[in-house]
């Protein structure tokens, strides 16, 4: 059996959280590359003062909209801690992205709506078709998630409760790991799977004056929002897939390597 090795001799830096790295690392290895992981995201439960209200009044919501896998996991953890369930929930469930939908399925939850494109802007636009008779929506989300969906729904006279269910933080031990990685290792690609990974990466780069160490390293962003954040920090993004998934991003990195090898011939 022939081994696929278009990423041979390429080290790809993964900056996403520790609990999300396995599939991405495996895909890089599948293509013959070396995955180097420095987790720049960690997720912690956030005690929202309205938590008990949201959970005990779930039956009043027409929709629950999940914007991330972490939002799903923390939601069901809190649901269990209150002895509640979605067994009697009469509303519908929406997910911003196939990965979020897949996690919901692991909890036995059917998803009624997933946008074709996985950004808050696309969700807000496509969700217009679902707004007939919708009066109240709950959005469990992280502290750094944008309010695009809530703002759009509110403008449509829909009552929208944003439940900040978790906080996104930079793991303290990762600051030195990233510094040492950029100083001591050869990194061929830097990948960002969210705006938060970009911000935390640049926080470390600026703190340790590592700007020159990242010059010329191709940068891949999973989608347009992360790309925009990277551009705001002055980073040049070389790769941004049309399909906003890890698979799409790695496949575009493979294509990028192939094209540059052809140019060198």
From TrEMBL:
Job of this protein: Catalyzes cyclization of the linear tetrapyrrole, hydroxymethylbilane, to the macrocyclic uroporphyrinogen III.
Family: Belongs to the uroporphyrinogen-III synthase family.
GO MF, one annotated term: uroporphyrinogen-III synthase activity
Keyword Lyase attributed: yes
Biological source species: Bacillus seohaeanensis
CDD domains: HemD
Pfam short name (any one): HEM4
Official protein name in the record: Uroporphyrinogen-III synthase
Domain called Tetrapyrrole biosynthesis uroporphyrinogen III synthase: residue spans: 23-251
Keywords, ordered alphabetically: Lyase, Porphyrin biosynthesis
Reactions that this protein is recorded to catalyse: hydroxymethylbilane = uroporphyrinogen III + H2O
């Amino acid at each position: 059996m022939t081994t696929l090795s278009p990423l041979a001799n390429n080290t790809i830096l993964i900056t996403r959280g520790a609990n999300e790295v396995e599939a991405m690392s495996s895909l890089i290895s599948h293509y013959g590359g070396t995955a180097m992981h420095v987790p720049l995201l960690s997720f912690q439960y956030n005690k929202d003062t309205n938590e008990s209200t949201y959970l005990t009044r779930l039956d009043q919501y027409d929709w629950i909209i999940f914007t991330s896998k972490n939002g799903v996991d923390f939601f069901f953890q809190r649901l269990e801690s209150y002895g509640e369930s979605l067994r009697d929930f009469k509303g519908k469930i929406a997910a911003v992205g196939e990965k979020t939908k897949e996690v919901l399925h692991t909890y036995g939850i059917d998803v009624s709506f997933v946008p074709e494109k996985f950004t808050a802007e696309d969700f807000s636009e496509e969700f217009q078709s679902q707004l007939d008779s919708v009066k109240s929506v709950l959005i469990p989300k992280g502290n750094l998630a944008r309010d695009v969906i809530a703002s759009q729904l509110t403008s449509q006279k829909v009552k929208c409760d944003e439940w900040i269910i978790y906080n996104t933080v930079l793991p303290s031990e990762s600051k030195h790991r990233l510094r040492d990685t950029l100083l001591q290792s050869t990194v061929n690609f830097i990948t960002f799977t969210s705006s938060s990974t970009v911000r935390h990466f640049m926080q470390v780069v600026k703190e340790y004056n590592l700007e020159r160490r990242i010059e010329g390293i191709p940068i891949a962003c999973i989608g347009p929002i992360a790309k925009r954040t990277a551009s705001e920090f002055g980073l040049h993004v070389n790769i941004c897939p049309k399909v906003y998934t890890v698979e799409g991003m790695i496949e575009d990195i493979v294509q990028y390597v192939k094209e540059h090898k052809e140019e060198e011939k």
